[in-house]
Fold each of these.
Amino acid sequence: MNRTKSKTELSRRTYLKATGVAAAGTVGLAGCAGTASATGTLATQVTDQPGDIADFESCVVTIQGIWVKPSGGDDDTETAETEGDDSGTDGDQTDGTQTETGAAEEGTEAEVDESDAREYHEFEEPQEADLVELQNGNTQLIDERELDVGTYEFLQLDVTDVEGVLDGGDEAEVDTPGSAPLQFKEPFEIREDQVTTFTGDFTPVRRGRTDRYLLQPVASGTRVEYGDEAGDGSQ
């Protein structure tokens, strides 16, 4: 049992309502102009590096969509202040490498970007991933789509449900912090007619001595690869 679904539903619906009319107008204008932007492919994968996942018999996460933020976007509302924050990635990006910044860390509200500059992409069907099966370098592809060529500041997973069962058979409460969702602050590029593979690493972390867990990003396991550099660890 968890509260993730109710926390994320309002944010997603509010965004879609607010942007629906504008998006329709944009599509109409693009059709009149008769031109199309250059695009590339974003392949989104998930994995689980060691946290407290060893406590679980299964930990099934349902993902409804992703948020991405193009660089240089307008940050009019609810933009996080991250200056002076040393807990995230350093922004350096090397093709096919991962950012080495430590184990799972709980974000804070000040570190999360919820500005209108984000783009939301809903999946045709919700995707389920059992984190127990995604250890030891295993990954699962949850989405593949075309995006406009450019640089993006982060990728965020829209987790709508989590069902956790502990090794002994008891149900565990697994959630994402309400003020700090699974937002991976790893910049990436979309290159024309190429595939960018973004692997988001996250894990359940036990809270004290209770059976309550929080899903938290693992910066050291989150990586971006381009073209043929993507590894073959998929399920």
Note: Residues 4-33 form the longest helix (30 residues).
Amino acid sequence: MSIPVQNLYHLLTYAWDQLKEAEAVAVAAEPADTLLDLLARVLVQGTTHVLKRGLARDYVPETELTGRVRGKLLLSDSIRQQTLPTARAWCSFDELSHDVPINRLLKATLHQLLTAAQLDDKLRREVRALYIRLADVSLISVRDVRVFDQVLLHRHNAHYRLLLSICRLVHEEALLTQETGKYLFSDFTGNEKRMAALFERFVRNFYRLRQQHFSVKAEKLDWHLTPDSSAAKALLPGMQTDVSLTAADRKIIIDCKYYQEALKKHYDKEKLISGHLYQLYAYVQHARCQQATRPVRGMLLYPVTHQPLRLQYQLTGTLASLEVATLDLGQHWTKVEKDLLSLL
């Protein structure tokens, strides 16, 4: 599936729930940009902004052999090393420093970009210049992206939020390409599992941010069944929607399907994918039980760049309906947003 680089970036910023941060670092893709180039461009501009504003600082523990007592005197260490006769002692103290985890991760990502063979030459020079400016920050090796979960963001460093999301994505990709031997982001959209999760989060956050009529969330639905035993109840699988839009007057359940095609060949005839339709039907039937008089629409949403679909099926004798729709992610982004809003 071919998705323009700029549109991929929009998908990411919505999925990360960082639309405002992305608007503050407004960067447009240049015609020859790869996703790597565009992310590097955002990182360059964002890091430049951070440096102008001032790198995040925090108190870090230091140990020093000094001629004056500072902080806590490490008496046992000083005695063991016989420093006291020389009028010096080992002391531990906290010192305000830029060499903190959030800056180390930023520097590690700039270093990772410098090692990317396919990065645009002009961008490489800009990245190197910023890397040099972080000379007083330690260079670390990121072997597990869960290290990003340990960074605490607060009002004094919240402006790092978008940068950290990009840094994490770069390192996730770097760890993946170490296994496959491919270039960074050379096959980003080819990872269907990752793109499916990205598409789902994008749609959910888009509707949460771009309209006010519905409350939006991923919703756990109850099975309206009566099990004959606790064992039977325990074996029921969970039922969770990708996107539930709920209002007093109606409810919409969207099941996001990141598939190349919304139709499948069956005996040389194109048909809807039965498993997807059955799943949506189950969601709608159980959602109807929440409030019998409220209309419920279920929608299968496919991101395709051709063969547009907008199919509707009314459940006979009910206020419920099923729909199948496609969203062209290859068109201009303003049209993508307009089409999404038109589905409501």
Note: The first helix runs from residue 5 to 15.
Amino acid sequence: MGTNHITKLEDPIDVMLLMHKAFRALSDRTEALVAKAETIEDIEELNEVFGFWVNQILYHATVEDEVMTSPLQNSQPARDNETEHAELAGKAGDLVKFIGLGNSAGLKESVREAAFSLEEEQHKELEERFHEVEDALAQVLGEKKVTARTIRHLHSRLMGVRILELDHFENEEAFVCSLVREEIDEAGQLYMVRRLLIDDSAENPRWIIDWVHSELDPSEQVLLEELEARFQGAAQPA
């Protein structure tokens, strides 16, 4: 994962690269606001930007759990592995193949379970870290006093959030998105992407996709626009 220019989306779920880039830009700005904060007005601006960041990441994590990780976990490929193992075990000539597949399949499933466990833990920890920063901001705003110690305290807590966020994105891109590509067809991915980018419950359903679009380079904006045309034109599950 990095800040490199994104030139192509191989699969619909690759929109996560664009979304993660947008999140990094937002967290960069938030950190910069902490670094330059000197007055209570600066803290008020920081509080507003941080609140937007919180709303974005919590919506993102909630929808991920609902439409990405939960369906993947419920697919339980381990059951398929068990069926394959039983069939192979019944064929004497395939015994060696069975043993080899058993080891590799077991390892793959262990990695899979670890990735989902890490995803869930990171979502919970991100929420906890965000609340810590919110509490620190509320305290400063309540005291209406900004000191060097206050800024160090806020910066330290914010860096904790940023590091966890980056770790979370790396896990998603390395493991979860790879599983989506392997196990979810294009129609399913387009549904996931629409849910991640369009919030039908909000007064402005486009508050996410419009923000992501604003954080991207012009050619990346075109990629997002083309993907939106695809998922808006796709049939949605009943």
Note: Confidence is low (pLDDT under 50) at residues 76-112.
